[in-house]
Amino acid sequence: MFTLYKKNPDGKLLYAEYWIEDDQLVEHVGTVGALGTASRIDFPGEYQNEDEFKRNFLSRYTSQCYEEASKQEVVILLIQYPMKSISGSKRDLWLKEKATEALSSELGWRGLGFVDGFDMGKTSKPVTQYALNIYCHVVDEKLGIQAVKRVLRETRLDHTQIKIASRAMNCGAAFVLQYSAKKDSAFYV
């Protein structure tokens, strides 16, 4: 996937992106945080290779002032679920798969970002505690948190157990808790 962004004079962030799926080039455009529109063309077809399409894509969108997101603009969201053991139960493994799938779809189709992976294990809390952490890169922290809460609630993926923390992409600072379903302010990665 290749994504470009543009800030409108009204402050809204627009996106244009493409990827190849099932022998088709998918072009997806919209306003960050809202469902965009997608168009598809057969690949290869009009374009013989991805580089040829990418040059055309860049030409069309950079002429409209779209550009790649800089690392300063990207925020990492950490979605954390509690676990009872270091290796996790079958339910924890199922939750990891389903939550990752739901988050990937929600963040992607709204131009917000993508899921960058997960880890499972012991947190840094002095008292033994285990967690599933799912990491997402987003271009708008507030809209990203809203989307995460919404999709996990709508898909009934243990949204009453989550904590969401964030930090800027380009710094080594600690994650800061932004939301706790249980109103617990203690947070350990």
Features:
189 residues, alpha+beta, Alpha-Beta Plaits, five-stranded antiparallel sheet, four-stranded antiparallel sheet, 3 helices
Write the layout of secondary structure elements.
Layout: E1 2-7, E2 13-21, E3 24-31, E4 37-42, H1 50-62, E5 75-83, H2 90-109, E6 113-122, E7 130-138, H3 141-154, E8 163-168, E9 176-180
Antiparallel strand pairs: 1-2, 2-3, 3-4, 5-7, 5-8, 6-7, 8-9
Helix pairs in contact: 2-3
> What is the element string, with H for helices and E for strands?
EEEEHEHEEHEE
Strand order of the largest sheet: 6-7-5-8-9
* CATH topology category name of the largest domain: Alpha-Beta Plaits
Compute the average pLDDT. 90
Largest sheet: 5 strands, antiparallel
Range of strand content: 35-45%
CATH architecture of the largest domain: 2-Layer Sandwich
What report would you give on this structure?
- The protein has 189 residues and is of the alpha+beta class.
- It folds into two domains: 2-62; 75-180, Alpha-Beta Plaits.
- Helices cover 25% and strands 36% of the residues.
- The strands form two sheets. The chain has a five-stranded antiparallel beta sheet with strand order 6-7-5-8-9, covered by helices on one side. It has a four-stranded antiparallel beta sheet with strand order 1-2-3-4, covered by helices on one side.
- Strand 1 (2-7) and strand 2 (13-21) form a beta hairpin.
- Helix 2 packs across helix 3 (141-154).
- The longest helix has 20 residues, at 90-109.
- The protein is elongated and about 60 Å long.
- The relative contact order is 0.16.
